[in-house]
Amino acid sequence: MPERKKLLLRLDPDVYDAVAKWAADDLRSINAQIEYALRLALKTAGRAPRRSPPSDE
């Protein structure tokens, strides 16, 4: 598996809290939840990467 990219992300505290609650509800880490949300947005926009790991939907 290729090395994962590291990214510094600044979030509004309210957005962070909402993502943290969503992650806890889905039993995911905040990092995994952000990646899940980004993949969902890419799929919705028709821009999903050709090779993507299986989702846990």
Low-confidence stretches: none
Helix and strand succession? HH
Question: How many H/I helices?
Answer: 2
Query: What percent strand?
Result: under 5%
Q: What's the main sheet like? A: none
* Broad shape: globular
What is the terminal separation in angstroms? 21 Å
Organism: Phytohabitans kaempferiae
Protein name: Arc-like DNA binding domain-containing protein
InterPro entries: Arc_rbn_hlx_hlx, Ribbon_hlx_hlx
Question: Any overview of this molecule?
Answer:
This protein has two helices and no strands. It has 57 residues and is mainly alpha-helical. It has a domain of 32 residues. The longest helix is centred in the middle third of the chain and has 15 residues. The two termini are 21 Å apart. This is Arc-like DNA binding domain-containing protein. InterPro entries: Arc_rbn_hlx_hlx, Ribbon_hlx_hlx.
In a nutshell, what does this entry contain?
49% of the residues lie in helices and 0% in strands.
